[in-house]
Amino acid sequence: MNKNLRKAVIAGNWKMNKTRPEAKALIQELLPLVKDADCGVVICVPYTNLETALAATAGTNIAVGAENCHWAESGAFTGEISAPMLKELGVEYVVIGHSERRQYFGETDVTVQKRVRAALDAGLTVILCIGELLEQREAGITEEIVGMQTKAALGGVSREELGRIILAYEPVWAIGTGKTATAAQANEVNHYIRTVVEKLYDKEAADGVTIQYGGSMNAKNAEELLDQPDVDGGLIGGASLKAPDFAAIVKAASR
Ligand code: PEP
Fold this sequence. Notes:
Layout: E1 9-13, H1 20-34, E2 40-44, H2 50-57, E3 62-66, H3 83-89, E4 93-96, H4 99-104, H5 109-121, E5 125-130, H6 134-138, H7 142-154, E6 165-169, H8 183-200, H9 203-208, E7 211-214, H10 222-226, E8 233-236, H11 243-254
Parallel strand pairs: 1-2, 1-8, 2-3, 3-4, 4-5, 5-6, 6-7, 7-8
This protein binds phosphoenolpyruvate.
Residues 13, 15, 170, 175-176, 214-217, 235-239 line the site of phosphoenolpyruvate.
Protein backbone atom coordinates (compact mmCIF):
# COMPACT_ATOMS: atom_id res chain seq x y z
CA MET A 1 0.00 0.00 0.00
CA ASN A 2 1.48 3.27 -1.11
CA LYS A 3 1.83 6.00 1.47
CA ASN A 4 2.37 8.58 -1.29
CA LEU A 5 -1.27 8.17 -2.28
CA ARG A 6 -2.31 9.86 0.95
CA LYS A 7 -1.79 13.27 2.45
CA ALA A 8 -0.63 13.34 6.03
CA VAL A 9 -2.73 15.47 8.34
CA ILE A 10 -1.55 16.76 11.69
CA ALA A 11 -4.50 17.81 13.82
CA GLY A 12 -4.31 19.41 17.24
CA ASN A 13 -6.98 18.58 19.78
CA TRP A 14 -6.95 21.38 22.31
CA LYS A 15 -9.56 19.64 24.51
CA MET A 16 -10.95 22.00 27.21
CA ASN A 17 -8.06 24.47 27.14
CA LYS A 18 -7.43 28.11 26.24
CA THR A 19 -9.45 31.27 26.66
CA ARG A 20 -9.96 33.41 23.56
CA PRO A 21 -6.91 35.65 24.13
CA GLU A 22 -4.79 32.57 24.84
CA ALA A 23 -6.11 30.90 21.70
CA LYS A 24 -5.27 33.95 19.58
CA ALA A 25 -1.75 34.14 21.01
CA LEU A 26 -1.10 30.42 20.41
CA ILE A 27 -2.29 30.63 16.80
CA GLN A 28 -0.21 33.75 16.13
CA GLU A 29 2.85 31.95 17.45
CA LEU A 30 2.05 28.87 15.38
CA LEU A 31 1.33 30.50 12.02
CA PRO A 32 4.91 31.37 10.97
CA LEU A 33 6.19 28.03 12.27
CA VAL A 34 3.90 25.91 10.06
CA LYS A 35 3.39 28.14 7.03
CA ASP A 36 5.55 25.93 4.78
CA ALA A 37 4.04 22.65 5.93
CA ASP A 38 3.77 19.93 3.33
CA CYS A 39 0.90 18.25 5.15
CA GLY A 40 -2.57 19.20 6.27
CA VAL A 41 -2.60 21.26 9.48
CA VAL A 42 -5.78 21.42 11.55
CA ILE A 43 -6.51 22.79 15.00
CA CYS A 44 -9.59 21.46 16.77
CA VAL A 45 -10.57 23.90 19.48
CA PRO A 46 -13.32 24.40 22.08
CA TYR A 47 -16.56 25.87 20.72
CA THR A 48 -15.85 29.19 22.44
CA ASN A 49 -12.62 29.55 20.43
CA LEU A 50 -13.97 28.67 17.01
CA GLU A 51 -14.63 32.22 15.79
CA THR A 52 -11.31 33.44 17.17
CA ALA A 53 -9.48 30.57 15.49
CA LEU A 54 -11.29 31.10 12.18
CA ALA A 55 -10.43 34.80 12.18
CA ALA A 56 -6.80 34.20 13.16
CA THR A 57 -6.26 31.50 10.51
CA ALA A 58 -8.18 33.13 7.62
CA GLY A 59 -6.12 32.92 4.43
CA THR A 60 -3.50 30.64 6.01
CA ASN A 61 -2.73 26.92 5.71
CA ILE A 62 -4.30 26.10 9.09
CA ALA A 63 -7.83 24.71 9.04
CA VAL A 64 -10.16 24.80 12.02
CA GLY A 65 -12.15 21.99 13.56
CA ALA A 66 -14.54 21.47 16.47
CA GLU A 67 -14.18 18.70 19.03
CA ASN A 68 -17.68 17.25 18.74
CA CYS A 69 -21.12 17.88 17.26
CA HIS A 70 -24.64 16.66 17.92
CA TRP A 71 -26.52 14.40 15.49
CA ALA A 72 -29.66 16.54 15.22
CA GLU A 73 -29.80 19.64 13.02
CA SER A 74 -31.48 21.65 15.75
CA GLY A 75 -33.90 21.15 18.62
CA ALA A 76 -34.26 20.64 22.35
CA PHE A 77 -30.74 19.48 23.17
CA THR A 78 -29.58 21.95 25.79
CA GLY A 79 -25.86 22.52 25.76
CA GLU A 80 -25.25 20.86 22.40
CA ILE A 81 -23.99 22.25 19.08
CA SER A 82 -25.12 20.94 15.69
CA ALA A 83 -23.08 20.19 12.59
CA PRO A 84 -24.90 22.82 10.46
CA MET A 85 -24.09 25.42 13.16
CA LEU A 86 -20.39 24.56 12.79
CA LYS A 87 -20.57 24.63 9.01
CA GLU A 88 -22.25 28.03 9.04
CA LEU A 89 -19.40 29.41 11.16
CA GLY A 90 -16.88 28.28 8.57
CA VAL A 91 -15.57 25.27 10.46
CA GLU A 92 -14.23 22.49 8.18
CA TYR A 93 -13.40 19.59 10.53
CA VAL A 94 -14.96 17.91 13.53
CA VAL A 95 -13.54 15.27 15.88
CA ILE A 96 -16.03 12.51 16.58
CA GLY A 97 -15.83 9.57 18.96
CA HIS A 98 -12.85 10.77 20.98
CA SER A 99 -12.16 8.33 23.80
CA GLU A 100 -12.78 11.07 26.39
CA ARG A 101 -16.30 11.45 24.95
CA ARG A 102 -16.74 7.68 25.05
CA GLN A 103 -15.32 7.42 28.60
CA TYR A 104 -16.89 10.44 30.33
CA PHE A 105 -19.97 11.34 28.29
CA GLY A 106 -21.54 8.01 27.40
CA GLU A 107 -20.59 8.11 23.73
CA THR A 108 -21.25 4.74 22.07
CA ASP A 109 -20.69 3.29 18.61
CA VAL A 110 -24.35 4.08 17.91
CA THR A 111 -24.09 7.78 18.83
CA VAL A 112 -20.74 8.03 17.04
CA GLN A 113 -22.38 6.74 13.86
CA LYS A 114 -25.21 9.26 14.19
CA ARG A 115 -22.78 12.15 14.72
CA VAL A 116 -20.67 11.05 11.73
CA ARG A 117 -23.80 11.01 9.57
CA ALA A 118 -24.80 14.50 10.71
CA ALA A 119 -21.31 15.90 10.16
CA LEU A 120 -21.06 14.48 6.64
CA ASP A 121 -24.55 15.73 5.78
CA ALA A 122 -23.51 19.22 6.87
CA GLY A 123 -20.43 19.09 4.63
CA LEU A 124 -17.81 18.73 7.37
CA THR A 125 -14.74 16.47 7.33
CA VAL A 126 -14.71 14.03 10.23
CA ILE A 127 -11.72 13.02 12.32
CA LEU A 128 -13.07 9.72 13.60
CA CYS A 129 -11.39 8.34 16.72
CA ILE A 130 -11.15 4.65 17.47
CA GLY A 131 -8.97 2.73 19.88
CA GLU A 132 -8.80 0.03 22.51
CA LEU A 133 -8.60 0.19 26.30
CA LEU A 134 -5.54 -1.22 28.07
CA GLU A 135 -7.46 -4.26 29.30
CA GLN A 136 -8.67 -4.95 25.76
CA ARG A 137 -5.09 -4.83 24.46
CA GLU A 138 -3.98 -7.11 27.26
CA ALA A 139 -6.82 -9.51 26.44
CA GLY A 140 -5.58 -9.65 22.84
CA ILE A 141 -8.75 -8.17 21.34
CA THR A 142 -7.38 -4.88 19.96
CA GLU A 143 -8.20 -5.74 16.35
CA GLU A 144 -11.68 -6.93 17.25
CA ILE A 145 -12.40 -3.67 19.09
CA VAL A 146 -11.02 -1.23 16.50
CA GLY A 147 -12.58 -3.31 13.73
CA MET A 148 -16.00 -3.11 15.39
CA GLN A 149 -15.65 0.63 16.06
CA THR A 150 -14.59 1.29 12.46
CA LYS A 151 -17.42 -0.75 10.95
CA ALA A 152 -20.01 0.85 13.22
CA ALA A 153 -18.87 4.41 12.57
CA LEU A 154 -18.65 3.90 8.82
CA GLY A 155 -22.05 2.22 8.60
CA GLY A 156 -23.96 4.20 5.99
CA VAL A 157 -20.91 6.19 4.84
CA SER A 158 -20.68 5.98 1.06
CA ARG A 159 -17.41 5.41 -0.78
CA GLU A 160 -17.55 8.98 -2.02
CA GLU A 161 -18.10 10.31 1.50
CA LEU A 162 -15.09 8.35 2.74
CA GLY A 163 -13.02 11.15 1.20
CA ARG A 164 -14.24 13.33 4.08
CA ILE A 165 -13.29 10.83 6.78
CA ILE A 166 -9.92 10.79 8.53
CA LEU A 167 -9.51 7.83 10.85
CA ALA A 168 -7.51 8.39 14.02
CA TYR A 169 -6.24 5.30 15.81
CA GLU A 170 -5.85 6.31 19.43
CA PRO A 171 -5.09 3.55 21.93
CA VAL A 172 -6.88 4.82 25.03
CA TRP A 173 -3.99 3.80 27.28
CA ALA A 174 -1.71 6.17 25.38
CA ILE A 175 -3.86 9.30 25.52
CA GLY A 176 -2.59 11.95 27.89
CA THR A 177 -0.58 9.33 29.76
CA GLY A 178 2.85 9.91 28.28
CA LYS A 179 2.78 6.24 27.19
CA THR A 180 3.11 6.09 23.43
CA ALA A 181 2.37 3.01 21.37
CA THR A 182 5.59 1.86 19.78
CA ALA A 183 5.92 2.78 16.13
CA ALA A 184 5.45 -0.90 15.29
CA GLN A 185 2.29 -1.18 17.41
CA ALA A 186 0.83 1.97 15.83
CA ASN A 187 1.62 0.78 12.34
CA GLU A 188 0.25 -2.70 12.97
CA VAL A 189 -3.15 -1.43 14.09
CA ASN A 190 -3.30 1.29 11.43
CA HIS A 191 -2.58 -1.39 8.84
CA TYR A 192 -5.32 -3.57 10.26
CA ILE A 193 -7.80 -0.67 10.13
CA ARG A 194 -6.87 -0.20 6.47
CA THR A 195 -7.74 -3.84 5.78
CA VAL A 196 -11.12 -3.26 7.45
CA VAL A 197 -11.71 -0.27 5.15
CA GLU A 198 -10.71 -2.42 2.17
CA LYS A 199 -13.29 -5.05 3.14
CA LEU A 200 -15.99 -2.39 3.57
CA TYR A 201 -15.17 -0.57 0.31
CA ASP A 202 -12.27 -1.60 -1.93
CA LYS A 203 -8.48 -1.47 -2.19
CA GLU A 204 -8.37 1.95 -3.81
CA ALA A 205 -10.50 3.39 -1.02
CA ALA A 206 -8.29 1.74 1.61
CA ASP A 207 -5.12 3.00 -0.08
CA GLY A 208 -6.50 6.53 -0.14
CA VAL A 209 -7.88 6.90 3.37
CA THR A 210 -5.82 8.91 5.85
CA ILE A 211 -5.24 7.03 9.12
CA GLN A 212 -3.62 9.04 11.88
CA TYR A 213 -2.06 7.84 15.09
CA GLY A 214 -2.82 9.65 18.34
CA GLY A 215 -1.63 9.10 21.88
CA SER A 216 1.16 11.09 23.52
CA MET A 217 2.73 11.97 20.17
CA ASN A 218 5.28 14.70 20.75
CA ALA A 219 8.18 16.54 19.17
CA LYS A 220 10.58 13.73 20.10
CA ASN A 221 8.69 10.61 19.03
CA ALA A 222 6.77 12.05 16.04
CA GLU A 223 9.36 11.30 13.39
CA GLU A 224 9.55 7.58 14.12
CA LEU A 225 5.77 7.22 14.33
CA LEU A 226 5.14 9.26 11.19
CA ASP A 227 7.75 7.30 9.23
CA GLN A 228 5.60 4.18 9.49
CA PRO A 229 4.03 3.15 6.18
CA ASP A 230 0.46 3.12 7.51
CA VAL A 231 0.64 6.18 9.78
CA ASP A 232 -0.61 9.21 7.87
CA GLY A 233 -0.27 11.95 10.41
CA GLY A 234 -1.36 12.42 13.97
CA LEU A 235 -4.03 13.64 16.33
CA ILE A 236 -2.17 15.59 18.96
CA GLY A 237 -3.50 16.54 22.39
CA GLY A 238 -1.04 17.91 24.94
CA ALA A 239 1.70 18.79 22.46
CA SER A 240 -0.73 20.87 20.37
CA LEU A 241 -0.91 23.43 23.18
CA LYS A 242 2.70 24.48 22.65
CA ALA A 243 3.43 26.07 19.28
CA PRO A 244 7.06 24.87 18.94
CA ASP A 245 6.12 21.29 19.84
CA PHE A 246 3.15 21.18 17.48
CA ALA A 247 5.26 22.78 14.73
CA ALA A 248 7.98 20.15 15.22
CA ILE A 249 5.38 17.42 14.64
CA VAL A 250 4.11 19.21 11.53
CA LYS A 251 7.71 19.40 10.30
CA ALA A 252 8.21 15.67 10.91
CA ALA A 253 5.07 14.95 8.84
CA SER A 254 6.27 17.23 6.03
CA ARG A 255 9.51 15.39 5.35
C1 PEP B 1 -5.87 13.32 22.00
O1 PEP B 1 -6.43 14.11 22.74
O2 PEP B 1 -6.46 12.90 21.01
C2 PEP B 1 -4.50 12.89 22.32
C3 PEP B 1 -3.91 12.04 21.51
O3 PEP B 1 -3.95 13.42 23.45
P1 PEP B 1 -2.39 13.34 23.86
O4 PEP B 1 -1.59 13.69 22.64
O5 PEP B 1 -2.26 14.35 24.96
O6 PEP B 1 -2.12 11.95 24.31
